[in-house]
Amino acid sequence: MEKLRRLAPFRTYSITQLCREFGCTARALRFYEEQGLLFPRRHQMQRVYSYKDRARLQLIVRGRKVGLSLAEIRDILDTYEDGGEQAQNAVALKVFKARLAALQAERSRLDDAMQTLSAACERLAGGPPMGQAAA
Fold this sequence. Notes:
13% of the residues are buried. Helices cover 70% and strands 7% of the residues. By secondary structure, it is mainly α. It has a three-stranded antiparallel β-sheet. β2 and β3 form a beta hairpin. The longest helix is centred in the last third of the chain and has 56 residues, at 70-125. The protein is elongated, with a radius of gyration of 23 Å. The N and C termini lie far apart (72 Å). It is built from five helices and three strands. It has two domains: 1-65, Multidrug-efflux Transporter Regulator, Chain: A, Domain 2; 70-125, no CATH class.
């Protein structure tokens, strides 16, 4: 087991393997490379991704899933390179809290819109507004 842990950093991945694992397209991986988020090596005409690229892609995919911008993701990833894990965690916490607040505000707007539409549907259907009992 110890031998596997020491060898893990030397594992490489093809673009096909990463696309399959993370459910993204080769085009997306090439785009992330163009944006300076991934840094695969080249072996002849093929991209070869390192364990570090795989870890970065995992963070990119998770960040995109929760609505982070590529700029926010880049800041988090670059902070690790410049200041280490503790600095990265501090930046990530700040970005995550801001995104959470934005999602909570969006939820509130959606709840209000849904209530308005429900009441309008009830009115148009001839029934009492939703949330009010019929007399």
